[in-house]
Amino acid sequence: MKRIFVFLIxxxxxxxxxxxxxxxxLEPGKNMMAxxxxxxxxxACINKIVIHTEEKYKPESLKLSDFEVERxxxxxxxxxxxxxxxxxxxxxxxSDSKGNKIEEESSYITIxxxxxxxxxxxxxxxxxxxxxxxxxxxxxxxxxxxLDFKITKVQGFVNEDVSKFSKGLFTFKGATEKKEFEIxxxxxxxxxxxxxxxxKLPLILWFHSIGESGSNPYLVLLGTKTxxxxxxxxxxxxxxxxxxxxxxxxxxxxxxxxENSMGIRYWAPVDIEGSVKKxxxxxxxxxxxxxxxxxxxxxxxxxxxxxxxxxxxxxxELLMDFLKKHPEIDSDRxxxxxxxxxxxxxMNMMIQHPELFVAAFPTCEYYLxxxxxxxxxxxxxxxxxxxxxxxxxxxxxxxxxxxxxxxRLRKADAKNLKVTVFPNVVDTSGTVFKNRNAEEDDDDxxxxxxxxxxxxxxYVLNDQCYxxxxxxxxxxxxxx
Length: 480
Description:
Layout: E1 7-9, E2 22-23, E3 32-40, E4 43-57, E5 68-75, E6 80-87, E7 89-94, E8 106-113, H1 128-133, E9 136-144, E10 149-151, E11 153-158, E12 166-175, E13 180-190, E14 201-207, H2 218-222, H3 232-235, E15 243-247, E16 255-259, E17 265-267, H4 272-291, H5 312-325, E18 329-339, H6 341-352, E19 359-363, H7 374-380, E20 385-390, H8 402-411, E21 417-422, E22 425-426, E23 450-451, H9 457-461, E24 466-467, E25 470-471, H10 472-478
Parallel strand pairs: 2-11, 3-11, 14-15, 14-18, 18-19, 19-20, 20-21
Antiparallel strand pairs: 1-6, 3-4, 4-8, 5-6, 5-9, 7-8, 9-10, 12-13, 13-15, 16-17, 22-23, 24-25
């Protein structure tokens, strides 16, 4: 029954998944399934599948070992499907149409799957390359040979937090010396209910990390727990709530405006100058001291190579278009934040268009300090900024990005600079453990799961960044 990368040409529309659609709730039709996806600190994880069978089954007829859930990769352009791993099934039971357990026979069967940061095949999204280069989707099939049924059609995905958001599409029209081009950019947005038509809402512009790039905007919300921005806790800091705008980059925010001889754009961070300056700066400072030139008084003459994101203009126009469509947004209270490559984009937007934003909160940001001129540092020092990173981040080393930039901002007498530094990134919920099978006598019993040090956005999205008694989002809500 198990298959290894079996390719099937899909002839029937009814057996394929042409897109992923998320609902607040869903009752699957006959011979269909509803796939429940949870928003977790580590990303999206399937936790439940409700299937609707032709026949009714008694609870005692359902045996865990008889159920198999296969993940199927569907390639939209070619129509090809292939099995792509199995989900670990941890429980099965008769249920109602929403997946609630019942002790009587039913044509609805609920399957619980493994929920853990390292659970195999648990994400509903293909990897980074598939997301950015192809329109690929995961579908699923549930099989039980003993009961003689196979369910192959997903009616939809369920996540109540995602359902708070709406989808949008903005097409940027640009041109180079050689040609005109268009960039379609998906985005997700959330608008809290306002008390009156006169209510003005602040806005958070959120930039995702590199892994959420592509053409499936749901990934923006679930790749990291971005849905938390629309949650009650963070929303409560703002008198009337805060709107969220989360654009999706088709390739990656790190793509810059600089091109090589082949017309291919460089990706940041390209640190050609930074490497050279390590050797030239000591000599330069020595000769400057002999001539009496003071470094701080000199103005940078040019912007560093590969420092500006190619998506600066598209995002700026998207933001302007969104503000035009939503006059309830207060343009004097627009905040910008993001993590990793999104932290780079946060810094990029603050440097290129500081007039648009009242404050920023870059997280594990990937903007090399060597790319920021002294003039830009002075301008940034005038803005409210809150940096967050973990000391053991090996993916984006703080020593090359956040740390030297923060040092320069302090030297420039930054007026409203906050910094939250964590030694590492661990679970703080008390529900995810380093060894979930450990017993009381084991050394690692009860120890929290440790995430990659780059994942400091977990603390941000859980509202766990503080300066004294003040949280990041409480501080953000006060900026005007």
